[in-house]
Prior knowledge:
The structure is a single chain. By secondary structure, the protein is mainly α. It has nine helices and five strands; from the N terminus they run H-H-H-H-E-E-H-E-H-H-E-E-H-H. The strands form two sheets. The chain has a three-stranded antiparallel β-sheet with strand order 3-4-5. The protein has a two-stranded antiparallel sheet with strand order 1-2. This is DUF817 domain-containing protein. Pfam families: DUF817. InterPro entries: DUF817.
Amino acid sequence: MGRIRYLxxxxxxxxxxxxxxxxxxxxxxxxxxVELPLPRYDVLLIWCLFVQVVLVKTGLETMExxxxxxWFHVIGLGLELFKVQMGSWSYPDEAFxxxxxxxxxxxxxxxxxxxxxxxxxxxxDLQFMKMPNxxxxxxxxxxxxxNFFWHHVWLDFRWLxxxxxxxxxxxxxxxxxxxxxxxxxxxxxxxxxxxxxxxxAENIVTFYNGWAYPNQLNGWAIVDLGKLSSWFLLVIISILxxxxxxxxxxxxxx
Length: 254
């Protein structure tokens, strides 16, 4: 019974941390089937702004957390603008708030990942142990982000980067608290599990036409499992962004 209790607590805290992504999924589902007075992507942008305000007003997110989440907007939109121009995926619906083929609500999908990370970090009281030197960790993060662009020009170094991640983070452990007890998990495993969750979420989003890969333009198809490697790498950037913010706050308060 004890294990079931902790599993329930874990699921409950995870569900609370996923409020923003779930709100986006719900809006994608509703707007696909309901007639709207504005283009669908514009309505989604308004909805995302509304949800962000509600999260802050209700105390589910703090303004400090919103600051770090805003970086997810910037990084995500930069990636979107490039990838859409390269034909990696597209946004088939029309919108007033589209810039170079990318609707502005797209930034909130990255922000929802950031929202999940910062809320889970706080709710589960995450502590990281045996982490690599910050210069190595953040150097890897920059290389990962750069490779999302570079592989369109020359070689794709993702598998080399994944090997380097295992070398750098292989001994690292994340500790999380559930009620009165702490549990440990290998950091690399946590990266992979979050990537699997995002891949499942991506299937939901593309099913509701949030965006579309080239093989989905004539009808929905399951997202290629190969995308797991991309999400695995993107999760690491997300964790490092929040970790950088946490270290910055700790420095400012000492």
